[in-house]
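User: Now give one protein:

AI:
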Amino acid sequence: MFSLIINIYYMKQFIYFFLLISYTTFSQNFDKVDKIVLEYPRFSKIENLALRIDTDFSKDEEKVRAAFFWLAKNIRYDLNQYYNPKGRSFKFSYSNEIEKEQKLEAAKNKIIDKTFKTKKGLCEEYAQSFKKVCSLLNIEAAVIKGYTRNSPYDIGRFVSETNHAWNAVKLNDKWIILDPTWSAGYLMNGKWTRKFNPYFYNIPKDKIFKTHLPEESIWILRFGRITKKEFYNQPIYGQEFLASTIELISPKNGIIKIKKGENIVLKFKNLSEKASMLYNYKNHNYAKRPILKSENNITTLTILNPLRNSELFLFINNRTALQFKIE
């Protein structure tokens, strides 16, 4: 007889602290699907949601979007549970692998049932609920556990335990990445605001590793190549920046080391000359304007006399775009 203890709150959940308004999104247009789903009731059973989706839509792409959109619009992030992680562990015994899987599935269903009754949850609840809806619709999906970063403090600081959960779903024989938690809203000044963010539905393949790093290598190999060190050493990318066509050419490292008398120089591609650029340091009240020079679609940004041993915040059109450590 074996025993297994599962701690559901094994991860510190991160939420983007930025207002989630994009410049340009890469997602497919699902306006018609979203409009229909907005008329759905606040289902208390996941089976009822799956049945309604299966009745209203014929294409798997539409069904997946409908499930994702409903969850993001109706499940509220549970800040109380986030700040007070209690009662999220359970244990059970099993005699063989079949019994183990059955009991694990029962535990997940219990989590999902509670989520639909309370309309609240953390990333595990969002991810497990999305996977369950897809399963009921006979669509292959998975829960991915891994790592995310939230502030310059996290740059270069590796953690051993996963801190987030999101999803992958297979459509037209290709896997796409979705994060219903980060699409549901944002935290600002200690309060959670529901605001749907389309960017995290089908995250662009070339930008997944800027925000999400799967724990299992199979998910990394399916979307590219990156090491844990490379992931943690990146700058912190704001969603608005990622949702745009702007590209950071240099520096690629999130830790900018400067010597006395040196300036900070960043280079961008596809940055509009009309874009408003500001920067600030941690615990400083006022933002400043950098020096900008554009040539052949390449913009060079220069910060004179930078503050060392601090954190640098770069804003584009008054939205947090990039964050660095300055040493």
In short: Confidence is low (pLDDT under 50) at residues 1-27.
